[in-house]
Design goal:
Blueprint (H helix, E strand, L loop, with lengths): L9 H10 L7 H11 L1 H8 L28 H40 L12 H5 L8 H15 L4 H9 L6 H4 L5 H10 L2 H10 L5 H19 L36 H15 L5 H9 L10 H4 L23
C-alpha cells in the first residue's frame, strides 16, 4: 500500500510514544534525544518494549507485535538501550579491527610466498573456486577482479598506491594490495586461495577446515559493516549464521557455542574473540567485551541470554578469561 504517514514535529513524535504507552521523566531531554538520534532510528530501541503478539495454534506469533508498549515502558529505558548498543558497537569494532588487520597479514604473507601477484594470477589460486559462478553471472574470480579494480581506483590517491601505479606500471603485490582491500573482498580472496594456502591460514586461525573459516569470516564481515555504518547490533539477527563449530575441527574455546543461538550476536562475538587471540596473542579484547557487557541495562527483564543468544554460563567460559600476560612467550 502507499505510504501516507505525515511528517511529525519532535514534540508530536514524543506524544505518539506517550499515546502508545511509553512514559518519560524529562520532556526537554527526551525531545533533545529525538533531535539527535531521530525517531525512526530510536524506534528500533523501543520495539522490544512493545506488547507481545497473540500466539497461534502452532506456537508462533499470529501477527506482528502491536504498536502499544508494555506497562512500565519508559523513554529513558529505551535510551539506555541505545547508549549500550553504541558502546557495544564500538567494542566490537575494536575487536574486528584486530581480526581484520591480522587476517590481512596472514593472507598477504601466505599468498605472497606462493606468488607476489597471486591475487591476480589464476595459477596461484584454486581453479574450481575461481571458475564457480557468482550471483551476478560472472565467475568467482571475475567478480573478485572487478571489485579489486574498483577498490584500487578508489585508493588511487593514497601515496603508497600512487607509488606503485607510477613506478611499477600498476603492478601491486598482495602485501600492498591487501592494505586497500575491504574485509569483504579479503574474505572473498580467501575463498579463492589454493587449498594449501587456505588450510595454512585456517590452521593459524585455530580451525582445521577452510570452508568453516570462510563461513565464519563472511559472518564477521557483515557484523563489521554494521559497526562501521553505526547500525544496531545488540539484538540483531545474523545474516550468515556461523553454525555450531565441530569439536574435531575447532579450538576448544569455541566448543560451547552449541549452547548459543546461532542467529544472534553471541557466536559472532565469540568468533571475534577467538580470532583476535589467534592472530594477536597480546589482545585484551575478550576481557574488554566481558566488561562492556556488564553495562547491559536489562530493561523489563530483558537479558543477553534471551535477546542476544548468550549461553547461560557464558561468563565462565575460558575465552572471556583470556589473559595475554599468562600466555607463554613465543
Amino acid at each position: 500500500m502507499k505510504y501516507e504517514k505525515p511528517h511529525l514535529p519532535y514534540d508530536q513524535q514524543l506524544q505518539r510514544l506517550v499515546e502508545r504507552g511509553m512514559s518519560y521523566a524529562d520532556q526537554k531531554a527526551a525531545i533533545q534525544a529525538l533531535k539527535h538520534i531521530g525517531y525512526y532510528r530510536f524506534s528500533a530501541y523501543t520495539y522490544p518494549f512493545r506488547k507481545f503478539a497473540a500466539v497461534g495454534t502452532d506456537g508462533k506469533p499470529a501477527s506482528p507485535r502491536p504498536d502499544e508498549f508494555q506497562p512500565d515502558s519508559s523513554f529513558e529505558a529505551a535510551l539506555a538501550l541505545h547508549g549500550f548498543d553504541q558502546r557495544l558497537r564500538r567494542c566490537l569494532a575494536n575487536g574486528l579491527e584486530e581480526v581484520e588487520i591480522g587476517l590481512r597479514t596472514q593472507v598477504a604473507y601466505t599468498l605472497g610466498k606462493t606468488d607476489p601477484f597471486g591475487h591476480l594470477t589464476l595459477d596461484a589460486l584454486d581453479s574450481e573456486a575461481c571458475s564457480a559462478p557468482s550471483s551476478n553471472g560472472t565467475t568467482g574470480y571475475e567478480r573478485f577482479v572487478e571489485n579489486f579494480e574498483r577498490q584500487k581506483r578508489d585508493a588511487r590517491e593514497e601515496e603508497f598506491v600512487k607509488h606503485f601505479l607510477i613506478k611499477y606500471e600498476g603492478d601491486i603485490p598482495i602485501w600492498v594490495a591487501s592494505e586497500f582491500m575491504s574485509l569483504g573482498l579479503l574474505v572473498r580472496l580467501y575463498s579463492l586461495l589454493n587449498d594449501r594456502d587456505a588450510q595454512k591460514i585456517a590452521a593459524d586461525l585455530g580451525v582445521r577446515d577452510r570452508g568453516l573459516v570462510h563461513r565464519y569470516l563472511k559472518a564477521l564481515s557483515v557484523l563489521r559493516n554494521a559497526c562501521a555504518h553505526h547500525g544496531r547490533v545488540w539484538n540483531r539477527s545474523t545474516v550468515f549464521p556461523p553454525a555450531n563449530p565441530p569439536k574435531k575441527l575447532t579450538h576448544e574455546r569455541l566448543h560451547h557455542l552449541h549452547q548459543a543461538n546461532q542467529n544472534r550476536l553471541y557466536p559472532l562475538a565469540a568468533l571475534t574473540a577467538h580470532f583476535a587471540i589467534q592472530l594477536y596473542p597480546a589482545t585484551n579484547w575478550p576481557r574488554k567485551f566481558k566488561e562492556t557487557m556488564k553495562g547491559f541495562p536489562a530493561p523489563l527483564g530483558m537479558s543477553p541470554e534471551q535477546q542476544m543468544g548468550f549461553p547461560q554460563d557464558w561468563r565462565e567460559q575460558s575465552i572471556w578469561a583470556y589473559d595475554p600476560k599468562r600466555q607463554p612467550s613465543v
